[in-house]
Design goal:
This protein has helices at 23-26, 54-63, 71-111, 140-145, 176-194; strands at 3-6, 31-36, 48-51, 116-118, 125-129, 151-152, 166-170, 199-200, 203-204. The protein is of the alpha+beta class. It is elongated, with a radius of gyration of 20 Å. The termini are far apart. 18% of the residues are buried.
């Protein structure tokens, strides 16, 4: 059974201790290992890689239909990362962790006990859960119309109904002030459509 392993967030990690080993390192003949620089360097930089047994890789190359990946982008990535990758991550990782902390503080302030937070060990997303009776799909479109975008949990889950009360929030792009303002607005919109959260900043909502 072939295993497809995507490690695009593996380098963006702040948890203590060593990261788990890549599955490819455990079973190189069985794992197709891919990665991307769009998360660790720049979102618009669509350069990635595949590591696999040649019997698999040769077939993947034959399926490429884009005329080949741009050589210039590959050379820029290779040159930059060969000299500055560690320094780049040393700046990127604490910056992302700082935004995550701001997001958690804003959620605790605006949603209080109406939200359950699942702290990640890295990456650019935070999963949160509202009370079971809340279906986040009921206000996702309204939030987007008012400038607040989030990923409804059902769109990112194997069982959509099990994730109906979950949201996936991206904290990579906005500033800390935008995060605070965005969560305050999200709480207002959520309350208007679901009655939750009942309190924000320790003040009962009408």
């Amino acid at each position: 059974m072939p295993i497809f392993e995507d490690e695009c967030y593996a380098d963006v990690r702040w948890a203590a201790g060593d990261a788990p080993p890549a599955l490819y390192s455990l079973a190189p003949a069985q794992v197709i290992h891919i990665g991307s620089f769009s998360k660790s360097l720049a979102p618009a930089l669509r350069v990635g890689y595949v590591i696999a047994d040649w019997s698999v890789l040769s077939q993947l190359l034959a399926c490429k239909g884009d005329g080949g990946t741009g050589a210039l982008e590959q050379m820029v990535v290779a040159e930059y990362f060969s000299q500055s990758f560690d320094d780049h991550l040393a700046r990127l990782t604490p910056a992302l962790r700082g935004k995550l902390d701001t997001l958690v503080e804003a959620l605790e302030k605006e949603f209080g006990t109406d939200v359950e937070i699942f702290m990640p060990e890295g990456g650019i997303f935070l999963w949160v859960k509202l009370p079971d009776e809340v279906d986040v799909r009921s206000f996702a479109a309204a939030a987007l119309e008012q400038g607040v975008a989030f990923n409804p949990g059902p769109d990112w889950a194997c069982d959509p109904e099990e994730a109906r009360s979950h949201m996936r929030l991206c904290f990579a792009l906005p500033s800390k002030q935008q995060i605070r303002e965005g969560i305050a607005e999200l709480a207002r919109i959520c309350h208007a459509h679901t009655g939750r959260p009942r309190r924000s900043a320790n003040v009962a909502r009408g």
